């Protein structure tokens, strides 16, 4: 099984530790494109002028409010690195709480989970990375749109990681463009939508959607069941106590709705 997660835009910067060692990251086939993106990002963010800082911050997304992160990006090659599951600190990762998993569940996380990343393409939870700022929808000088860049380079890595197993795609819309399955692989891809139901009305709530996906993945890692088709995946979640409504196969996989009533 391969579980694809989005990164968190918020990250916890390691206070100390060795710098990232790019040749020791998972998915070694991505070493060269990672170096291209890293060089372009560091080049953009390496500036001493206020105008240069503002320009880089605008490219990254939020103007002047990001100048501190621009300065941090400029030091990525030498910045302290830590496990990716500690650097990513958003709602999904807080609910998933990989650091507290033990034994077999922790080993499954290492081999099952891959995180989509604007900077790295894909990373494993145990890969040591620095905190960085690069959303998947940024257009980076010398690279172009980050999502488009990775969409041309991730297929082999995803296929190798998934093998003949199921791909559970939990990425957000920003990162879904990084990899799309072909028609054959789509038969083994399942996507999950979380719906909050109150008084018979259902809606998607972003914060709760992320937290539920984190809890769902944690439950799967602890249980250890390894369904091989979307239909069996839906049945498996049902046995784990979730309310599940399987959908029909589509171009990018089979959608499954997880319906929850409590926040």
From TrEMBL:
Residues 1-22 are annotated as: Disordered. InterPro entries: YaaA. It comes from the Bacteria. Pfam families: H2O2_YaaD. PANTHER family: PEROXIDE STRESS RESISTANCE PROTEIN YAAA, PEROXIDE STRESS RESPONSE PROTEIN YAAA. This is Peroxide stress protein YaaA. The lineage of its organism: Bacteria, Bacillati, Actinomycetota, Actinomycetes, Propionibacteriales.
């Amino acid at each position: 099984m391969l579980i694809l997660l989005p990164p968190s835009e918020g990250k916890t910067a390691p206070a100390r530790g060795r710098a990232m060692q790019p040749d020791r990251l998972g998915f070694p086939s991505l070493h060269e494109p990672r170096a291209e993106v890293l060089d372009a990002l560091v080049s953009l963010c390496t500036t001493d002028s206020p105008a240069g800082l503002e320009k880089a911050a605008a490219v990254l997304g939020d103007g002047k409010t990001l100048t501190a992160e621009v300065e941090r990006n400029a030091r990525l090659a030498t910045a302290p690195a830590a496990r990716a599951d500690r650097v990513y600190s958003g709602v999904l990762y807080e609910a998933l709480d990989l650091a507290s998993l033990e034994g077999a569940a922790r080993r499954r996380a290492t081999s099952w989970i891959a995180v989509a990343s604007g900077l790295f393409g894909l990373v494993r939870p145990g890969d040591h990375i620095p905190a960085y700022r690069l959303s998947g929808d940024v257009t980076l000088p010398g690279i172009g749109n980050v999502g488009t860049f990775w969409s041309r380079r991730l297929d082999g890595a995803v296929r190798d990681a998934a093998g003949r197993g199921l791909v559970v795609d939990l990425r957000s819309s920003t990162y879904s463009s990084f990899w799309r399955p072909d028609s054959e692989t789509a038969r083994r891809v399942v996507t999950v939508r979380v719906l909050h139901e109150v008084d018979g009305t259902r809606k998607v709530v972003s914060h709760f959607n992320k937290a539920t996906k984190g809890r769902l993945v944690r439950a799967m890692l602890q249980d250890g069941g390894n369904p091989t088709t979307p239909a069996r995946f839906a049945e498996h979640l049902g046995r784990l106590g979730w309310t599940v409504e399987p959908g029909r196969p589509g171009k990018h996989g089979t959608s499954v709705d997880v319906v929850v009533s409590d926040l």
